[in-house]
Design goal:
The structure holds two protein chains of two kinds. Chain A is mainly alpha-helical. Chain A is built from eleven helices and four strands. Chain A has helices at 3-32, 39-57, 60-88, 93-115, 139-161, 163-173, 175-180, 185-211, 218-233, 238-258, 264-278; strands at residues 120-121, 130-132, 135-137, 213-214. In chain A, the strands form two sheets. Chain A has a two-stranded antiparallel sheet with strand order 1-4. In chain A, strands 2-3 form a two-stranded antiparallel ribbon. In chain A, helix 2 packs parallel to helix 4 and helix 2 crosses helix 8. In chain B, helix 2 (36-51) runs antiparallel to helix 3. A six-stranded mixed beta sheet of chain B has the order 8-9-10-5-11-12, with helices on both faces. The longest helix of chain B is centred in the N-terminal third of the chain and has 28 residues, at 143-170. In chain B, a hairpin with a 2-residue loop joins strand 6 (436-441) and strand 7. Classes of the chains: A mainly alpha, B alpha/beta.
């Protein structure tokens, strides 16, 4: 068995989860120009919602759906209760960013009160890994990859082939101009946040499945990796973000696999710092040569 | 009870120092630095490894020295400053706003993971301990009296830091720092090296973080990763925000409210049966919610940043005298200027059209035409642009553009939209890098220089939209236009002799007041510049140029959105620039205005110069007509 291919296989699983989380983050950014630092909490809530439903019904499919719906609802609440007010009042993006950080702490601690700070886990029977092509995956990992591909395909169709997708892109390019041309930017943003929340909630569920255990803080630590992927791809651009997630996910698995997994976050940051210094607007763009360019 | 009070006050003093350090970076420099708590932690760790002696297995950590506490703390400050320098060098170079925050978040996370996971560094998650009552043994204090002594020690340092910060706040360095926060482009255009200034502030802030960390380590007598969990940082940030960032008193108030009152009062809540995590969780929720609510309803904090209030009465200033600076007043005695020749010549100077008519009959009334005949053109050029080239993607915005600008003249730079005028200005002033070509300003090749160096040579530009420093007062805006490396040095602000400080400041202040009176802005002197109308902001820009007294000024569409009456005032001001020895390039779409003020006109089209000459001569120039109206097939 080739070790490189084995690591690549794990890297693809990480990349699949990361791609969903990062694309959701970038969609949130696209319609509101806000880097949502409480994005990680959407994942956490998705994981807990799935946990509650799985314990109540024992059905993993319901759990997955529940994670998506809960993620969508919490993202919509974040948008309507906080973000939208900041955007409508014309409060700067930095202040909104700081507010999302505050929001993140509020949500984390609500979860601590509800579920306690200790780690919990799903009770899912683990299947033995099977050989799929050159990779060695468990059935859960196969599900993760297949579902990520399906969600990507659906997002692609929505963003590029529907009227809503067109409106979304218009709001990203120029919010005021989009509004002048009759697009309800607020509605577009709310729907986008709901959609992104569903994707992120589901990502939280598969992340928890893949990691095994989770706590109220687990989304926040995955968030730095999400941020790396999103910035690598270019904030606000969904499909470049996915490409960024693929690169970062595989890179992390290789560094983690060959050096040490506990420094994964440090590696994520090293990658992020290099990308930001070389290509501040994302890997697939050309950087200006001076601060003002 | 007394002991508890002593402990809270000590904690308050330590957090006060922390918050004041953060305020330099976040409040004045305006960078939301998420790495700040990392500098506090590093200071604490370094203090411990420098004082507690060699490790006993299985404990592991670096250094393990037994230095005196008072030596260890400055070294801890130094290590935090070095760490800040490294992060700042990387993060401040090109990154602002959320990108800066993201990188600093990453930096602190790396430090956090390293401290927690890499055991040989600071003993991993178990952390370091064993710094008991530093200085206590030497002074022969028992446990009880040591508490009082340490409180006094912390308060003493806190007051020193407070005085230091008050001096920085009132210094030119502090003012320049705030101007960066308000508008970096304008700051660079008036000679501020933004990277260096921001870096200085960042390292300064980090060093104070390290100092607070050193005290914190002694207060806790130990330090481990749970002492600097993200929530601790958030409490600190909320204290600065709630109190009022930028305002020293506000920051201290914020520490009292958030750290001494809210955090402490929640300690007295009864424990929740069955779930001991509830009370700390509630406390963290309150902190998060306070952050959101303050950002929404009172983003400036309880005590907002204060602007310098000038109590000067303008009644005694004669605007007529103020129009000309001293050397220009002297020079004007040789020149037939508006001030001397009365109404007739003033109208000729203002209107090149009437000048053109009068050239044939009375060339004597034309000082500038006279200059041109007396001085050879090559010597009289203040700016020589040769073969300038810049492309964006496949479009050549500036394509082999060459022209020269005569000293002591108003040169109009006109051309249809997309002709490359704005890009040309950006290239000349250093705000964009050219792909090819050279720019010579007063015998110095300036192509490729950063904007602040070009500005320091005496070439200042304005922007299409007024770029005032909105959060500063009108007077502060004008004062800051003059870049003075002597007075802007950080050390001068802190230890500078007050008398010297005061004297130079006074002549400068007088000049600024004169200029405000000249532009009719004296009533608005203490107003926040961001509250002015569009036209008033234009006047502030002109006042700033007057204050800076550059050799050449480039005005980028100064008439945009300006009413005719104000236009009149601007024409006069431009005239004043020439008289005081400032050559002028003016980019404008308002051709009657150009015709009125410009001695010479350069016409650009599709990235290069198609014609030059006095306005009158261009009326019949075919390439100019083509440029504006499109080529007409013959």
């Amino acid at each position: 068995m080739n070790e490189v291919l084995l690591t690549l296989g794990f890297g693809l699983v990480t990349a699949a989860i990361l791609a969903l989380s990062a694309v959701a983050f970038t969609l949130e950014y696209a319609v509101t120009n806000v880097a949502n630092l409480s994005h990680g909490e959407i994942l956490t809530i998705g994981a807990y919602a799935a946990y509650v439903i799985q314990r109540a019904t024992g059905n993993i499919l319901f759990a997955a759906l529940g994670a998506a719906v809960a993620g969508g609802i919490i993202a919509l609440v974040m948008y309507t209760a906080v973000i939208d007010i900041f955007v409508r009042r014309g409060i700067g993006t930095m202040s909104t960013l700081i507010a999302t950080l505050g929001m993140s702490f509020v949500i984390q601690n609500i979860l601590v009160i509800m579920f306690g700070a200790a780690n919990v886990a799903y009770t899912i029977p683990q299947s033995a890994p099977q050989q799929i092509g050159p990779f060695l995956w468990t059935s859960t990992e196969e599900e993760i990859i297949i579902s990520a591909l399906c969600i990507t395909a659906i997002l692609y169709v929505i963003i590029t082939h529907t009227k809503f997708g067109k409106a979304l892109r218009a709001v990203f390019q120029n919010r005021s101009l989009a509004r002048v041309t009759g697009i309800n930017a607020q509605l577009v943003a709310a729907v986008t946040w709901f959609l992104a929340g569903m994707v992120a909630g589901y990502a939280g569920f598969i992340l928890a499945e893949s990691v095994g255990t989770f706590s109220p803080y687990f989304g926040f630590s995955f968030f730095l990796i999400t941020l790396t992927a999103a910035v690598a791809g270019g904030l606000g651009k969904p499909f470049s973000t996915m490409a960024g997630a693929l690169i970062v996910g595989i890179a992390l698995e290789f560094t983690g696999g060959y050096i040490s997994a506990s420094y994964e976050l440090a590696f994520a940051f090293a990658i992020l710092a290099i990308i930001i210094l070389v290509r501040p607007r994302g890997l697939f763009t050309k950087a200006g040569r001076t601060l003002f360019e | 009870m007394i002991q508890y009070l002593v402990s809270i006050l000590t904690e308050g003093a330590i957090f006060g120092i922390m918050a004041l350090g953060l305020n330099v970076i976040w409040g004045w420099s305006g960078d939301f630095d998420l790495a700040y708590y990392g500098y506090v932690a590093l200071g604490a760790y370094m203090t411990l490894v420098l004082t507690i002696g060699p490790p006993f297995p299985p404990t592991e950590y670096i250094l393990g020295l037994q230095l005196p506490y008072l030596v260890a703390v400055p070294l801890a400050m130094l290590s935090s400053a070095i760490m800040g320098l490294i992060v700042g060098l990387i993060a401040l170079r090109h990154l602002r706003g959320i990108y800066f925050s993201i990188v600093t978040l990453g930096a602190v996370y790396v430090l956090y993971v390293m401290a927690g996971q890499y055991v040989p560094l600071f003993n991993g998650y178990n952390g370091l301990y064993g710094l008991f009552n530093p200085m206590g043994a030497a002074l022969g204090l028992d446990f009880q009296s040591y508490q009082y002594f340490f409180l006094g020690f912390c308060l003493f340092i806190f007051i020193l830091v407070l005085i230091f910060m008050a001096r920085v706040s009132g210094s030119r360095f502090g003012l320049a720092l705030r101007s960066l926060r308000e508008d970096e482009r304008a700051a660079a255009a008036f000679g501020r090296d933004i990277y260096l200034l921001k870096l200085k502030a960042y390292v300064l802030g980090a060093a104070f973080g390290g100092l607070a960390g050193g005290l914190f380590a002694a207060y806790l007598s130990a330090f481990n990763p749970s002492a600097w969990a993200p929530i601790e940082a958030i409490i600190l940030y909320s204290a600065v925000l709630v109190g009022g960032k930028g305002n020293i008193k506000g920051v201290v108030l914020g520490v009292v409210i958030m750290i001494m009152l809210i955090q402490e009062s929640t300690r007295f809540l009864p424990e929740f049966p069955g779930n001991p995590a509830v009370v700390p969780a509630l406390r963290e929720m309150v902190v998060g919610a306070v952050l959101v609510l303050f950002l929404l309803f009172r983003p400036q904090g309880l005590l907002p940043e204060r602007r310098y209030v000038d109590r000067f009465s303008y009644d005694n200033i004669d605007p007529g005298v103020a129009v000309l600076p001293a050397q220009a007043r002297e020079a004007s005695s040789h020149l037939p200027s508006p001030a001397q020749d009365g109404e007739q010549s003033s109208s000729t100077a203002l209107s090149p059209l009437s000048v053109a008519e009068s050239v044939a009959e009375a060339p004597v009334h034309q000082p500038l035409a006279q200059d041109r005949t007396e001085v050879p053109a090559s010597e009289a050029a203040v700016l020589i642009v040769e073969g300038l080239y810049k492309h964006f993607g496949g479009v050549a915005a500036v394509d082999n553009c060459s022209f020269r600008v005569q000293k002591g003249q108003v040169t109009g730079l006109i051309g249809p939209n997309g002709a490359g005028k704005s890009t040309a200005i950006d290239l000349i002033s250093g705000f964009k890098l050219q792909d090819a070509g050279s720019v010579v300003f007063e015998d110095t090749a300036i192509q490729g220089m950063p904007p602040h160096r070009i500005a320091r040579l005496g070439l200042i530009r304005t922007f299409q939209t007024p770029r005032e420093w909105p959060g500063l007062s009108v007077l502060e805006n004008v004062l800051l236009a003059r870049w003075d490396p002597e007075r802007e040095a950080l050390w001068r602000g802190i230890i500078g002799l007050r008398r010297f400080h005061h004297l130079t400041a006074k002549s400068e202040l007088d000049r600024a007041r004169e200029i405000l009176a000249e532009f009719g802005l004296s009533k608005l002197s203490n107003e926040r510049a961001g509250n002015l109308s569009g036209g008033q902001k234009r006047l502030v820009e002109f006042a700033r140029i007057r204050m800076a007294e550059p050799k050449l000024v480039i005005l980028d569409e100064p008439m945009g959105g300006v009413n005719p009456v104000l236009g009149e005032r601007m024409a006069k001001a431009i005239d004043g620039f020439i008289i005081s020895g400032t050559s002028v390039i003016i980019v404008e779409h308002n051709l009657p205005f150009i015709e009125r003020v410009a001695h010479n006109v350069i016409v650009m089209s599709q990235g290069s110069v198609v014609a030059t000459g006095p306005f009158e001569s261009l009326r019949s120039n075919q390439s100019v007509i083509d440029a504006y109206l499109g080529e007409v097939p013959v």
